[in-house]
Design a protein that fits this description.
The chain is of the alpha+beta class and about 100 residues long. It is built from 3 helices and 9 strands. The chain has a 5-stranded antiparallel beta sheet. It has a two-stranded antiparallel ribbon with strand order 1-9. β4 and β5 form a beta hairpin.
Amino acid sequence: MKLLTEEIKRALPPLGTHDETITDNIPVICTFFTPTGAQWHWYVTEGEQQEDGDWLLFGLVHGMEKEWGYFSLSELQSVACGFGLGIERDLYTSPKTIGAIYECV
């Protein structure tokens, strides 16, 4: 599965765009998740392509804890979740805000 489509790349605001935004109002552009037992989710709110061609993304990571952080596309692509599966992109949730995510998790 392609994690970042051209449509998603165009929709991603540059890093730092939401520095002054109230957290609940920040839109989630896309969501990645582990498709096996231990559920981890990456709620992407910003991103930029780097000089080396990789994408640096920023958003809310919900794993053992909920925390904001940076992660790269190459890092997500390198994760082996077991059973021959890797990180996947959520194809079925409509765009939402971080506030809506906090209500669900």
